[in-house]
Amino acid sequence: MPKRILLLFALLIPFPDQAEAIHLSQETQACLSCHMSITPGIVSDWQKSRHAITLPEEAVKKPPLERRVSTQRIDDPLKGVAVGCYECHSRNPEAHRDNFEHFGFKINVIVSPKDCAVCHPVEEEQFRDSKKANAHGNLAKNPFFTMLLETITGVKIVDLAELSIALQKPSAFTKQETCYSCHGTEVQVKGTKELETKLGKIKIPDLANWPNQGVGRINPDGSRGACSSCHPRHSFSIEIARKPFTCAQCHLEPDVPAWNVYQESKHGNIFLSKQSEWNFQAVPWRLGQDFQAPTCATCHNSLITTAAGDPIAQRTHDFGARLWVRLFGLIYSHPQPQKGDTSIIKNKDGLPLPTTLLGDPAPDYLIGPEEQKKRQAVVKGLCNGCHNRDWIGNHFAKLDNTLKEVDQMTLAATKLLVRAWQNGIADTFNPFDETIEQRWIRQWLFLANSVKFASAMSGAPDYTSFKYGWWEMTGNLREMRDKVY
Amino acid sequence: MPKRILLLFALLIPFPDQAEAIHLSQETQACLSCHMSITPGIVSDWQKSRHAITLPEEAVKKPPLERRVSTQRIDDPLKGVAVGCYECHSRNPEAHRDNFEHFGFKINVIVSPKDCAVCHPVEEEQFRDSKKANAHGNLAKNPFFTMLLETITGVKIVDLAELSIALQKPSAFTKQETCYSCHGTEVQVKGTKELETKLGKIKIPDLANWPNQGVGRINPDGSRGACSSCHPRHSFSIEIARKPFTCAQCHLEPDVPAWNVYQESKHGNIFLSKQSEWNFQAVPWRLGQDFQAPTCATCHNSLITTAAGDPIAQRTHDFGARLWVRLFGLIYSHPQPQKGDTSIIKNKDGLPLPTTLLGDPAPDYLIGPEEQKKRQAVVKGLCNGCHNRDWIGNHFAKLDNTLKEVDQMTLAATKLLVRAWQNGIADTFNPFDETIEQRWIRQWLFLANSVKFASAMSGAPDYTSFKYGWWEMTGNLREMRDKVY
Amino acid sequence: MPKRILLLFALLIPFPDQAEAIHLSQETQACLSCHMSITPGIVSDWQKSRHAITLPEEAVKKPPLERRVSTQRIDDPLKGVAVGCYECHSRNPEAHRDNFEHFGFKINVIVSPKDCAVCHPVEEEQFRDSKKANAHGNLAKNPFFTMLLETITGVKIVDLAELSIALQKPSAFTKQETCYSCHGTEVQVKGTKELETKLGKIKIPDLANWPNQGVGRINPDGSRGACSSCHPRHSFSIEIARKPFTCAQCHLEPDVPAWNVYQESKHGNIFLSKQSEWNFQAVPWRLGQDFQAPTCATCHNSLITTAAGDPIAQRTHDFGARLWVRLFGLIYSHPQPQKGDTSIIKNKDGLPLPTTLLGDPAPDYLIGPEEQKKRQAVVKGLCNGCHNRDWIGNHFAKLDNTLKEVDQMTLAATKLLVRAWQNGIADTFNPFDETIEQRWIRQWLFLANSVKFASAMSGAPDYTSFKYGWWEMTGNLREMRDKVY
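The joint structure predicted for all components is written out below.
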């Protein structure tokens, strides 16, 4: 369709009142003229967003603590117009292997963190080297975890005649909707394909491992991550990102029960009871004023100030930046890794793990006591918004003890597994496929994690006790012992 | 109490402002005069409903897309009055075996879909032949499922002297509060009984299998279903029906984890974060305008239009009408059944199941490819409200692959079960009572279902992975194998 | 810091508008002058509370049904001032072993129910002898449960050389964050310690088993309980206490799935769908007017009236006062205990349990039929707000049958356990540490409880059926049998 006709259509676009004064680029008007009826939901979503009603050059003028953009200056193509379809979907076309000719415009299918960085460079930079941004490779490039993934998600074929169970390689589709649904896929451009539409045939990029919003997605421009994981999808909402339902998509039981533990905690109780009266849009986010109890974002990444505007914690999009100890995902607790790319870690036994199977850490790859202390101070400062320092000290002393005890419970399970290997009850060829091996995984990945999370977030008694907690750690150990002896 | 006195009382009824202009029938005023103080909660509930403030003859005059009633004309007794107690509880008395004399009026205890059909005939007709309306018989008339039900819900008596465990027949009460709580009971009128009340002794029908709001309830007028399952209870709320908490009562883990999967999905995340700003009352329900992400009702049955009022999907109260493949409840995936009454299905082995135990479908009872395609087009049209067609195509290609793989995982379990039967590890007399048989059920009823739902609703990674997903499908298979070899 | 300077600071305290007319004591102004910046969150929390804007002497003048305080007169130090920091944290200093000198004031760290009783004496009195207030001792003074606790929460050490698993005594920290997180710890004053603060070194009490908000906490003034368990934390909210998220912190699956069952019930469905329109602050709480479906508090303890103000149930802070049968926590159902201190109970076999291991009750310690009937009448009166008496009668007849059947399923498990003991498959030295013993615990503590709760709250079909329900009671029994025979 010729560009001129599209622009004619643009004049007819009904637009919400608040946005009428905002100028849209001609390109964005052209996008809207069709997508208003082709995909009306995302247009509505965008119309409700700040992007639709904000001129970036106004956004940069806000006082530092109130700013939602981190760039210091707005470049030419973004001057004078709101942030519409074309402003985001046309960036860095040369890097985007998913760029394609679309009714006279060069469009990228996927908007990547690198594209967002034109206005939000500090956020992108913080995120870029985080564990989250590296979530794809931290799984795909780690042979230990890849073997676990393939053991679990491959189809098993029983052959009764041969008395065997054959394990097939997992399909790309299944990997996409299991582990890589959170970790992020590598979106690949296989070529182009034709699609029949109301406006005739169109040519589009043929993408593999797509759709996917995993936080560590590898994008066709080579960048890592998906901002839409937490700021979905054309509303780019800070509110949604600050609510725990967002983190809950990936951080939940049985392996990462952060959300479940939060829900049972006093903080979660207050959030669930009072959330409708809180302000999830405010920047900065004022403790006591905008909210009465923390959500995930409060402790892990938001810019938090007092009601009077005094900073309590700086914003970060490196979601591990305030963490000193790594509670989950691995066999034993250990100091946080130095880098977001954890696939480079080697323990003393040469395995790509931050501790040995008996719990000995690999200090060369982990942060030291000084850095741990610095990070803990940030979190304690946040706790101190509502709790006195003695309370906080006792809380973290309790956590330290729990980590020690829970690691002992994992060590007990590991020792029983080693005995099973020695006894020939299980073989070491694949450490993930036999029943006793799966019980061992259960001990650290589900049960130990639950107790550690519940201890860290204080007050989710069932996750320390009867639901995946000490009850099951104890019972699981007993069942392992019954198999071994 | 004489009718005249009741009407005198009626003058004293305090009534909310908005309703004052609405005329109530004399009979309804009489009901209210007592029930205002006898059961004040349901009176308040009704007062807040549209029924209390709407004249049906006004409701039929609305433009077609805005109509909440589907009848074309209002019959005499409903003319000029709001829809009150008596208008619903007095209908079709000759058919209602639960009709009784109550202070001078002939009242039905239960209001059935057939009664509601006086104003909502299209909804009742769509519902009448659906699987939901047949949910009671689809269980009660299927000997395979009845045997499962009786194996599970009957009391077991251990006799240590005789070294036996005797299985008793389940009680009516337990059947009422387990399977038939969702599937619906058959409410039977056993006779009449006396009840002591503040106003003296009254005679009422003596009902068995009551109370119950199961969606496939057999009513004393011979009709099937309970509108109050989803539109509870005297508020007849469209809002509650559209919120996923309603569907969640029956469609939840471990056997039907639709709600759990939704909660973890991006759609659920957005709903939980933004629901307070949405309009759950609007008819039609406008995508982008009234809501930003779908709930169960959006995809499965509501009338959906664009913000401009262009229809995207027509309303249906046959909740399977938009479904082409049957994901849950049965051993293998298969095309949707042709009729809501699935108790008539016979597979090639003569079992009342839509596939054989090895997965071979019974095509005579299932919809064909054309019908499947037509239904899929409706759902894809809904997705297209926010997602482009390539995204949608990839999504459903992924689902197709998942169904194939998950069915293979169920087949693997079935083969191990067959071997157990051959080995004499379990007997075939009752295929549900031995440990390995229960593991087989677990494989398809809990684990396969979870993965299939999570794939269909896109983005509930734990239900494909560690929580009832591939992790447990794999582990369960291993444990079956350990028992068999 | 000298007191005079603190008071100078007080003049600068920014205060919300609504509170400006309220006089604060000089002591509270002094507290605020520092804590405004030291712990701003709790100051904000308090500022939003009724305490901050209410003069107790006004609160006592309200009509009886609207009163939120139960004292008849306000004593001198509370006259003319709002209820601020000092009014609560300075009470009964002679009894408080946690009292300490703090910048010129004598302050208690912990505010106990006994302190709250100055304005809320009736609530404190009702609570004092309840099972909740005795929750610490009911566990700590019962050797049966203490042994269970120690078996579960102690670290296990595997010694491969000696082929043994050694059970260590649980640490104080782990007990604090498992069982005693709900049951309440005994907070002990070990002495004093120094804390480095922005204002220099300060001396504070050195507390053990702290922080803790368990409902049966033993306080340093010798009193029992923590009002902040349900009215957190400086907002003292009646709204939060009335929302089910509060009770959900402790009353949840797998052992006490009250919240999970509620969530799946029709009551829960309506609450979750409509809560934003309800009034959770109103006193009295008017059925139909302020809420359309009950929460935990409605049935168990709130003062409930009709919209017209007629009382339906009186307020109680003895949370068992409306209960006639004890569903959970113990092996078999039985009448509620006569006293909140259940550690005094002895069954016929001399065990500290309300029934024998075969289900025979210990009537001397349990309420009789008359008292049961009286309590049931209160609950039936509440149901009657929305349901007719026949419905209610059927509901409770169903519950009675369920209790009988579920107790039979527990008895079956007990018999298999006894056989295992006789066979030498397990030893009786510790009845909680072997796999078959853990399955027996699972039968009554998780599975039976689930069915009983689901039956009592009507309409959570998965908790009677597939999720911890009859499905698992049946399967668990089968697995016990497989081990025994």
